[in-house]
C-alpha cells in the first residue's frame, strides 16, 4: 500500500518537479548570461527590460534569432556559440512569461528615489576652474560608466566622475550651461553642477528609459520611458516630480515612448511613440504652475499638486504610421520621422497635424543623427542609415532626396558646425568601422576618409564652439578622443578615454547649433 502511494505520488509530482528544475536552470542561465545587461529582475539596464509587455511586438522566433545572432545597431551580441538551441528556446519561453509580481514604477517610487545632495542655490555661482564655461565638453565614457569634463580650448581634462550605469542619449544642459542632465537606460536622471563638479540631484523616472529633454528656459525636464509606458515631467531645479503622463491612445492601448525632444520655438516637448500611430506635443507648463519643490528625498506628495490642470495637457497628432527617431527643421514647424520598421519615413506639419511628404528611404535612416546646412541657397538635411552604406541628402523645401552618397559602410552619427565647410559621418558597422568620411558641404562629395587607428571603431564627432576644432571617438574600452583641426583635418592630440561614446559642447548644445544634435 505504501509502495503504491509512493508510486502515485511520484507519478503525480514528477512533472511538477521537472518544471521546477527547468525553471531553476533557466533562471540560473538568465542570471549568468543576460542579467548583467537586462537586470536581475528583468527590469532592464543597458539592454531593454525582458518582460512580456516590452516584447509584445517581437515574435518568439525573432527573439530566439536575436539571442542567437545579436541585434543590429545595439549592444546586443549574438550568444549562438555560448548557448545551445535548447537553452535559447527555454530562455525565450521564460522571458515571455509574466514575472511573479508585475513591475511598476509610479509616483511613489519616483518620489522615493529622489536624492538632492545640494538643493538649488546652495553651491557657489563661480566655476572652480578657469576654462571658458561655454566652450566645455562633456564626454560620456560608457566603457567604465564615467564622464569627463574637458576644457574646449586647451583640451585639458578638468574632471572625471562616475555616472549612472549605461547612459543613453545626449546629456542636456541648462541654457546658461551651468548644469547638465544625464539619462540612463535604467531610468535615472542625474543633475550635475559643472561649476562645482558635484551631483546636485537625482531621481529614477522609470524602469527602462530612452532619453530626457530639457525645456529651452531650463525650467523642466521630461523623461521618455519604455517601461512603464509614460512620460514624466520634473521641475529642473531639484528634479521634483511634477506630473506623470500615462501614454496610451484613446482606446487605452499603451505605448512605449521612443524619445522626447524639446521644441524651443513651439515652447513644447514632442514625443515619438513606438506602439501607437500618434505624435504627442506637450506644451511647457506656464511659470505660474504650482510645483512640488521638495528639495529632499522622500518628501510625500503635497496637496497643492494638481494633475488635472489644463497646463498638463497633451496634444495628440494622429499620423498614418508608427513613427520613431525624429529630426526637426529650424523653426520646428515640421517633424521628420522614420517608420518604425525602418523602411522610409514621412514629414508631418506640426501646426496642421498633416503629413506633407513621404521619404522613400530604405536602409533604416537614422534621423536622430541628422544635420542641416545651406546648399546652393537651399536648406538641406543629411542622414546616415543603420543598415545601408549611404548618406541621404534631402532638400528641406520640397523634401526630395537630392543625393544618395555612397559610403564605406552603414553609419551612426553625423556632425558639422555652421563655421565648418565639412560634414563628418562615421562608418559604424561592418569591416570598415575604423573609417570616418569627411563630406564637403558645398559639393556634397566625400573629400577625405580618415582611419585614425586601423581595426578600431572611430565614431561620433563634436565641434568646439567656434567650429574650428573637433573631437572624434576611438570607440574602444581602451579608446581615446582625438582632437582634429577642422579645416586641415590634421590630428592634434589624443586623450585616453574608456569607450567614449558621445561628446557634447556646451555652446553648440545650448545655442542649438545646426551641425549637432539637440
Ligand atoms: Fe542611441 C541618441 C535611439 C542604440 C548611442 N539614440 C539617441 C537618440 C535616440 C536613440 C532616439 C536621441 C535621444 C537624445 O539624444 O536625447 N539608440 C536609439 C535606438 O533606438 C537604438 C538604435 C537601439 C537601442 O537599443 O536603443 C540605439 N545608441 C544606440 C547604441 O547602441 C549606441 C551606439 C550605444 C549606447 O550607448 O547605447 C547609442 N544614442 C547613442 C548616443 C546618443 C544617442 C551616444 C547621443 C548622440 C548625440 O550626439 O546626441
Can you describe this structure?
- This protein is mainly beta and 518 residues long.
- The protein folds into four domains: 2-95, Orthogonal Bundle (Cytochrome Bc1 Complex, Chain D, domain 2), CATH 1.10.760.10; 106-246, Methylamine Dehydrogenase, Chain H (7 Propeller), CATH 2.130.10.10; 249-359, YVTN repeat-like/Quinoprotein amine dehydrogenase (Methylamine Dehydrogenase, Chain H), CATH 2.130.10.10; 365-518, Methylamine Dehydrogenase, Chain H (7 Propeller).
- It has six helices and 32 strands.
- The strands form eight sheets. It has a four-stranded antiparallel beta sheet with strand order 3-2-1-32. A four-stranded antiparallel beta sheet has the order 4-5-6-7. A four-stranded antiparallel beta sheet has the order 8-9-10-11, covered by helices on one side.
- A hairpin with a 4-residue loop joins strand 1 and strand 2.
- Helix 3 crosses helix 4 (85-95).
- Residues 1-20 and 289-308 have low confidence and may be disordered.
- The site of heme D (DHE) has 16 residues, from strand 12 and strand 32.
Amino acid at each position: 500500500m505504501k509502495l503504491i502511494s509512493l508510486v502515485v505520488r511520484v507519478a503525480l509530482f514528477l512533472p511538477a518537479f521537472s518544471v521546477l528544475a527547468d525553471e531553476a536552470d533557466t533562471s540560473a542561465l538568465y542570471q549568468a548570461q543576460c542579467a548583467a545587461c537586462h537586470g536581475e529582475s528583468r527590469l532592464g539596464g543597458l539592454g531593454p527590460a525582458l518582460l512580456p509587455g516590452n516584447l509584445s511586438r517581437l515574435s518568439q522566433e525573432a527573439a530566439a534569432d536575436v539571442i542567437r545572432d545579436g541585434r543590429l545597431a545595439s549592444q546586443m551580441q549574438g550568444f549562438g556559440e555560448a548557448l545551445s538551441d535548447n537553452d535559447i528556446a527555454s530562455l525565450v519561453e521564460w522571458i515571455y512569461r509574466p514575472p511573479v509580481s508585475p513591475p511598476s514604477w509610479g509616483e511613489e517610487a519616483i518620489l522615493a528615489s529622489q536624492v538632492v545632495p545640494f538643493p538649488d542655490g546652495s553651491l557657489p555661482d563661480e566655476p572652480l576652474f578657469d576654462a571658458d564655461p561655454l566652450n566645455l565638453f562633456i564626454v560620456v565614457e560608457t566603457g567604465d560608466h564615467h564622464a569627463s569634463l574637458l576644457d574646449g580650448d586647451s583640451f585639458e581634462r578638468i574632471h572625471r566622475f562616475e555616472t549612472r550605469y549605461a547612459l543613453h542619449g545626449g546629456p542636456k544642459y541648462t541654457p546658461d550651461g551651468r548644469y547638465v542632465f544625464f539619462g540612463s537606460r535604467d531610468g535615472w536622471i542625474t543633475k550635475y553642477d559643472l561649476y562645482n563638479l558635484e551631483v546636485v540631484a537625482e531621481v529614477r523616472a522609470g524602469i527602462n528609459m530612452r532619453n530626457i529633454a530639457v525645456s529651452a528656459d531650463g525650467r523642466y525636464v521630461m523623461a521618455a520611458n519604455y517601461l512603464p509606458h509614460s512620460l514624466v515631467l520634473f521641475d529642473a531645479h531639484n528634479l521634483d516630480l511634477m506630473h506623470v503622463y500615462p501614454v496610451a491612445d484613446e482606446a487605452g492601448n499603451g505605448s512605449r515612448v521612443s524619445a522626447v525632444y524639446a521644441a524651443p520655438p513651439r515652447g513644447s516637448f514632442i514625443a515619438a511613440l513606438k506602439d501607437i500611430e500618434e505624435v504627442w506635443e506637450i506644451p511647457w507648463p506656464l511659470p505660474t504652475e504650482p510645483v512640488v519643490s521638495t528639495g529632499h528625498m522622500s518628501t510625500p506628495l503635497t496637496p497643492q499638486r494638481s494633475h488635472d490642470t489644463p497646463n498638463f495637457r497633451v496634444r495628440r497628432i494622429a499620423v498614418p504610421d508608427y513613427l520613431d527617431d525624429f529630426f526637426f527643421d529650424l523653426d520646428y514647424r515640421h517633424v521628420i520621422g522614420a517608420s518604425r520598421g525602418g523602411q522610409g519615413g514621412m514629414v508631418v506639419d506640426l501646426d496642421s497635424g498633416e503629413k506633407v511628404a513621404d521619404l522613400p528611404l530604405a536602409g533604416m535612416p537614422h534621423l536622430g543623427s541628422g544635420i542641416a546646412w545651406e546648399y546652393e541657397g537651399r536648406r538641406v538635411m543629411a542622414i546616415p542609415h543603420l543598415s545601408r552604406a549611404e548618406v541621404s541628402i534631402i532638400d528641406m523645401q520640397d523634401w526630395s532626396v537630392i543625393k544618395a552618397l555612397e559610403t564605406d559602410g552603414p553609419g551612426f552619427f553625423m556632425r558639422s558646425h555652421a563655421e565648418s565647410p565639412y560634414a563628418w559621418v562615421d562608418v559604424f558597422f561592418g569591416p570598415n568601422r575604423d573609417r570616418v568620411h569627411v563630406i564637403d558641404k558645398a559639393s556634397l562629395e566625400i573629400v577625405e576618409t580618415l582611419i585614425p587607428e586601423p581595426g578600431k571603431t572611430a565614431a561620433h564627432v563634436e565641434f568646439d564652439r567656434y567650429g574650428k576644432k573637433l573631437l572624434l571617438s576611438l570607440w574602444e574600452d581602451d579608446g581615446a578622443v582625438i582632437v582634429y583641426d577642422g579645416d586641415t583635418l590634421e590630428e592634434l592630440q589624443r586623450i585616453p578615454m574608456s569607450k567614449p561614446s558621445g561628446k557634447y559642447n556646451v555652446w553648440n548644445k545650448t545655442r542649438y547649433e545646426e551641425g549637432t544634435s539637440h
